[in-house]
Amino acid sequence: MKSEKLNVLVVGSGGREHAIVKAIKNSPMLAKLVCAPGNGGISRDCEVANVSAEDIDGLVKLAKDGGFNLVISGPEVPLSMGLADKLRAEGIAVYGPNKDGATLEASKAFSKNFLKKYNIPTAIGENFTDADKASEFIKNASFDVVVKASGLAAGKGVVIPETREEAISAAREMLEGGAFGDSGKEIVVEEKMEGEEASIMLMVCKDKYVMLPASQDHKRVGEGDTGLNTGGMGAYAPAAVATPAVLEDVRKNIIEPTLAGLIAEGIDYRGTLYVGIMITKNGAKVVEFNVRFGDPECQVLMPLVKSDVLEILNDIANGELDESKVEIFDGFTAVVVMCAGGYPNSYRKGDVIKLPSDSEIPEGAWIIHAGTKEVNGEIVTSGGRVLGLTGTDKTLEGALAKAYDLCNKVSFDGAFYRRDIAHRELNRNK
Ligand code: AMP
Ligand code: GLY
Hints:
Distance between the termini: 53 Å
Largest sheet: 5 strands, parallel
Bound molecules: adenosine monophosphate, glycine
């Protein structure tokens, strides 16, 4: 039964979940807001419960015992473990797909087959469980290849080899050498696509959806997109590379057939669908599907939703989205991720974070906590990506100025961040 006043449980502990909490905490529909397990910053915005995001039975018990009527899952892992299925079986509304829908992210092999079956533009590729067959395919391919572990690998399961030998050894390491464990027992070998990437985040309710502004993440740790891959060093939205024509192409050739395909497969999808696209010279192609908001993309999307985010998520969870009710701000957002020294290799932990008081944080600026925890009343670093400094403004330059201004207001030993977030966009505007 759909309730008017909601007891809401947000699952997760990162920057994405903190952005969701901030977006919904002042909703007039809210009766109670709890996040499990949350983090140091989340615990200052709402109650937290000490249940891990991967303790499915613990979360179901918490939701039932606490009288929650809406659960919002931030991360993909609980969804792929069947959190939404179990909650729905208890009559609790969930924002996030069931296990069947979560397979779009949990199995790149499944999603490759799905894309092919429904004729959705993507890189040419094949799935393999046998290393000799994969090697043969790589040797004979008429294109450069990318090798992907099929299962969840926390964003690390993709190898972009320089040579065919490297591609073959990556495939063998995954299939025979146990790289990525069970996630690498099946692989996808596909054509390397050329173009600029953008993230398209949809809030989906079966055949209906809201398309949020396109955003762009910054994966590499170093300025100018150099150095090791990370979970994401910053983002901005809207990303102009996704022009109205690109978005029209994405709607018609990617989103509509994807939602129709999900329905044809008997999947009742209610939650975020993240479509990673490559804008190639032959149109937009799917790089990957995720079944949750991107992190840090979520931090730049939540502030752009003018309508009550909680109402949208609740409508979707209850299967009754009215897209025409959803309004998006006509503005820009940027997030700069401040990291712990050493990240993305092994990094410092436990450094005390100096934070400004609420009155020192200007309108249109958010301090998002990603890897923090509270110890004896102090907030200390506990993850590689520690804070997301987020600015919203009428212009991208204004949004970036607010985000970087916040960077000057927080400090902890070993902190570093990229000073060139949105460089592609700023250069485009020149
Ligand atoms: P995925 O986890 O599939 O999104 O891959 C992670 C990153 O690898 C993407 O964001 C792309 O930058 C890159 N990538 C994945 N697949 C391809 C491809 N077929 N061609 C070029 N780059 C790719
Ligand atoms: N920022 C990329 C991701 O969340 O997968």
